[in-house]
């Protein structure tokens, strides 16, 4: 799971814990509950409730901070079981207390790990904690007590099995989607480059005797087409190895810009503005693919000597700007390759525009929101 998804999961969970605090406080103030608790115990409960609020504040801070190697689904369930057990012990020590329903929270956390053994282990912790808090689960209604804690083990298994099934289904859907997108990308990218290369080599062979200089120029163009195909394949291989670009988005883009510009005696620079953020996978790959297509167009058509790529991390969106000092063009007349890039950006709720005039170079501006619309997917 990537860091952003892990952070969101923890924040959602902590938010649900906070919702319980007002109801927990009111529960102890209800006469039917308050009258059954000794005065000293009630004061201890009030003090402990303050400690719990501090604990939740710490958890909230940890959720937003999201340390990279901190596995909260393993750390917090035992603590939560202990906190709930102490509440029951300070209260009426009844195994059928409504406070016992809070045990479902650590069980839900454990289920999020997709580990059945861990979920059952947390359920065992619940049983031990409840037994210690209620003098061995002694109750005037032993059948209902037995059913309640048997039900806890059943729910622990159910939560985890459903989470496992959902994860497998999502993985299969993601795999099918990736296969479809990979096939489209190979067809539109690598295959197109290879077909162009084949035609270039065929043409060079036909005119090699009559016009060797032109044949040499075409062969040089073919060599660049082969390199573009290799770049496409390299990108696809990285995509197949993992959802995020290996080494990070900015290093991957820097490497691509360096490779392309160094082969064509271009001066290429990358500027980064704003605080770098962890990008959603769809935004990362769409920005990278648009940069690839734009730089390829610069190399093929712009006759530029300089190109600058700027990434600007705005509060709600990523701005990608690619500027060259080439011969320019009229965007209203020459739209080769532009529609595809616009389609990529719009698919994620973004937009793309190009400003250019003959003799004035060109500037491409792409805006991609961080919050990708539900159901939107990047075209690989």
Describe the protein.
The protein is α+β, with helices and mostly antiparallel strands. It has helices at 3-29, 31-34, 39-65, 72-90, 104-111, 116-133, 142-207, 212-241, 249-263, 281-302, 338-347, and strands at 267-273, 306-313, 317-324, 351-356, 362-369. A 5-stranded mixed sheet has the order 1-2-3-5-4. Strand 2 (306-313) and strand 3 (317-324) form a beta hairpin. The chain starts with a helix and ends in an 11-residue tail after the last strand. The relative contact order is 0.06. The model has no long low-confidence stretch (mean pLDDT 82).
In short:
By secondary structure, the chain is α+β, with helices and mostly antiparallel strands. The chain has helices at residues 3-29, 31-34, 39-65, 72-90, 104-111, 116-133, 142-207, 212-241, 249-263, 281-302, 338-347; strands spanning 267-273, 306-313, 317-324, 351-356, 362-369.
Q: What keywords describe this structure?
A:
single chain; 380 residues; alpha+beta; five-stranded mixed beta sheet; 11 helices; 5 strands; 65% helix; 10% strand
Q: Please, how many helices? A: 11
**Chain-averaged pLDDT:** 82
- State the share of residues found in helices, binned by percent: 55-70%
Largest sheet: 5 strands, mixed
End-to-end distance: 20 Å
Backbone shape = elongated
Give the C-alpha Rg: 30 Å
Query: Biggest sheet, strands in spatial order?
Result: 1-2-3-5-4
Tally of extended strands?
5
User: What's the helix-strand series?
Assistant: HHHHHHHHHEHEEHEE
**Would you tell me the structural class of the helices and strands?**
alpha+beta
Strand content: 5-15%
Give start-end ranges of low-pLDDT stretches: none
């Amino acid at each position: 799971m990537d860091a952003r998804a892990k952070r969101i999961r923890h924040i959602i969970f902590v938010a649900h814990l906070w919702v319980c605090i007002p109801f927990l406080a009111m529960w102890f103030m209800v006469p039917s509950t308050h009258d059954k608790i000794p005065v000293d115990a009630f004061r201890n409960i009030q003090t402990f409730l303050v400690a719990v609020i501090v604990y939740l504040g710490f958890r909230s801070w940890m959720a937003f901070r999201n340390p990279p190697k901190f596995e909260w689904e393993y750390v917090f369930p035992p603590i939560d079981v202990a906190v709930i057990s102490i509440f029951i012990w300070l209260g009426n020590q009844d195994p059928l207390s409504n406070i016992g329903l809070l045990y479902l929270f650590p069980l839900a956390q454990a289920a999020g790990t997709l580990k059945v053994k861990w979920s059952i282990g947390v359920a065992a912790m619940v049983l031990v904690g409840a037994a210690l808090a209620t003098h061995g689960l002694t109750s005037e209604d032993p059948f209902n007590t037995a059913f309640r804690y048997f039900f806890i083990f059943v729910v622990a298994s159910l939560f985890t099995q459903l989470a496992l099934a959902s994860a497998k289904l999502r993985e299969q859907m993601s795999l099918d989607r990736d296969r479809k997108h990979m096939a489209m990308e190979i067809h539109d990218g690598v295959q197109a480059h290879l077909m162009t290369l084949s035609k270039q080599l065929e043409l060079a062979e036909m005119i090699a005797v009559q016009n060797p200089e032109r044949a040499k120029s075409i062969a040089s163009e073919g060599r660049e087409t082969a390199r573009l195909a290799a770049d496409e394949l390299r990108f696809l291989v990285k995509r197949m190895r993992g959802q995020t670009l290996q080494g990070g988005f900015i290093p991957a883009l820097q490497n691509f810009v360096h490779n392309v510009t160094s082969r064509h005696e271009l001066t290429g620079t990358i500027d980064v503005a704003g605080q770098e953020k962890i990008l959603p996978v769809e935004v990362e790959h769409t920005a990278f693919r648009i940069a690839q297509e734009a730089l390829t167009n610069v190399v093929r058509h712009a006759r530029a000597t300089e190109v600058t790529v700027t990434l600007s991390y705005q509060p709600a969106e990523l701005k990608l700007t690619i500027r060259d000092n080439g011969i320019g063009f009229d965007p209203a007349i020459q739209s080769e390759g532009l529609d595809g890039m616009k389609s990529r950006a719009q698919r994620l709720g973004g937009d793309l525009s190009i400003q250019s005039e003959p003799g004035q170079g060109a500037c491409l501006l792409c805006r991609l929101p961080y919050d990708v619309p539900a159901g939107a997917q990047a075209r690989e």
